[in-house]
Amino acid sequence: MAAIYSLYIINKSGGLIFYKDYGSAGRMDTNDSLRVASLWHSMHAISQQLSPVAGCSGIELLEADTFDLHCFQSLTGTKFFVVCEPGTQHMEALLKVIYELYTDYVLKNPFYEMEMPIRCELFDINLSLTVQNERVALLGR
Amino acid sequence: MIGVGKIKQYSNVLDKPLSKGKQEVSLSAFAFLFSELVQYNQTQVDNIAELERRLEDAGYAVGARVLELLCHRDKGNRRETRLLGILSFVHSTVWKVLFGKVADSLEKGTEHEDEYMISEKELLVNRFISIPKDMGTFNCGAFVAGIVRGVLDSAGFPAVVTAHFVPMEGQQRPRTTILIKFAEEVNRGRGLVGFVPQFPDTTKGVGTTGASLESLDKMFSTLIMHFFLNKADVILLKHPLPLLFLINLPFLLSSQIYTWAHLVHLNME
């Protein structure tokens, strides 16, 4: 069973710019994924405001009965989050790697327009390689 | 003994050799700059062929300069005069300086005699670039093709250079092939147009700086040697000495008429 269910990238205004699901569990149609993205964006913003701690950067991990949601927000406000099996480890590291791929293969691509949906072949290729490696590593653990 | 040689002291700072400086720049900085170059040119054109041409022109300027620099740095102010020589110069020396490695392969075209191909599994400029589907066969390697054209053209081997994606079996990504098609005179000639010897002191001119008679002598002997080795067809020297023409007979008999620009013209005044 796949440990990672799906991956989302949302731009700083809450629009979904990348969505990919892995395996059958937790599959969603386009509308649902858009909804999750904008919902998460708002919840993340609200959590920052509600937090009793000063300088809170928003929710990093949401634990539910059937899934975990790990979120990483870059300095520019782009959010990366994965939905995965409860208790999956090393997701923060994975998100950092995905962020790195984003900066390399998306932002350095002259044909990518900022804040727009990501359609970059090299990003897709390298992302699936990374996720595959992650899966192999998970099986090995 | 190797490694223990004492550092040479130079009395005059001008005698000190120019250091090569740091050989590498940040790949990210380059990638962003190149991306910006493509984006800027994209705003200036309305079709892909035009974009390709503009990138090639940008590369051409780089190539012309790189040739000048490398001839000075690595070859003691000499320039390749043979076709294969200049090709391997591009394939190894130029590639190494620009991309930190030798190009993956240099092949002769199978269909045409006058075509050569430099192939690269992953061209440095294409490392982070995904071409959108609606742009068809566009390749940002056009910039590199321009560099190659700049080098070849400045060395006296005019050619048409293009960049193409070539799908590879068992590989997810196509490789990039730089196709070089030489102009007709290059194929016919034995490098006539390729023969533009550089002086020991090109920037100042021989006469004015009072270069030694010895260097002048050396130059003459090189010229004449090239002439007799059939590497140059015409040598024309303008000099306080009586005007000197050396003309190769088979060349005169050949059908094509060369323009003055094609002749080796050395102005030594």
TrEMBL record, chain A:
GO BP annotations listed: endoplasmic reticulum to Golgi vesicle-mediated transport
Q: Which CDD domains match?
A: TRAPPC4_synbindin
Amino-acid biosynthesis found in the keyword field: no
Is Transport among this UniProt entry's keywords?
yes
What cellular component terms from Gene Ontology apply here? endoplasmic reticulum; Golgi apparatus; TRAPP complex
Key words of the record? Endoplasmic reticulum, ER-Golgi transport, Golgi apparatus, Transport
InterPro entries, per the entry: Longin-like_dom_sf, TRAPPC
Q: Where in the cell is it found?
A: Endoplasmic reticulum; Golgi apparatus, cis-Golgi network; Golgi apparatus
Q: Which Gene3D superfamilies match?
A: 3.30.450.70
Q: Name one Pfam family in it.
A: Sybindin
Q: Which PANTHER family match?
A: TRAFFICKING PROTEIN PARTICLE COMPLEX SUBUNIT (PTHR23249), TRAFFICKING PROTEIN PARTICLE COMPLEX SUBUNIT 4 (PTHR23249:SF15)
The record's similarity note reads: Belongs to the TRAPP small subunits family. TRAPPC4 subfamily.
The record's subunit annotation is: Part of the multisubunit transport protein particle (TRAPP) complex.
The name this protein carries in UniProt is Trafficking protein particle complex subunit
Organism whose genome encodes this protein:
Lithocarpus litseifolius
UniProtKB/TrEMBL annotation, chain B:
Q: Under the cellular component aspect of Gene Ontology, which terms does the record hold?
A: endoplasmic reticulum; TRAPPI protein complex; TRAPPII protein complex; TRAPPIII protein complex
Entry-linked Pfam families: TRAPP (PF04051)
**Would the keyword Transport be found if you checked this record's keyword annotation?**
yes
Gene Ontology biological process: endoplasmic reticulum to Golgi vesicle-mediated transport
Q: Which residues cross the membrane?
A: none
Subcellular location(s) of the protein: Endoplasmic reticulum; Golgi apparatus
Highest taxon of source = Eukaryota
Q: Would the keyword NAD turn up in this protein's UniProt record?
A: no
Keyword vocabulary terms for this entry: Endoplasmic reticulum, ER-Golgi transport, Golgi apparatus, Transport
InterPro entries for this protein: NO_sig/Golgi_transp_ligand-bd, TRAPP-I_su5, TRAPP_component
Record-stated family: Belongs to the TRAPP small subunits family. BET3 subfamily.
The protein's name in its UniProt record: Trafficking protein particle complex subunit
Q: Which organism is it from?
A: Lithocarpus litseifolius
Q: What is the lineage of its organism?
A: Eukaryota, Viridiplantae, Streptophyta, Embryophyta, Tracheophyta
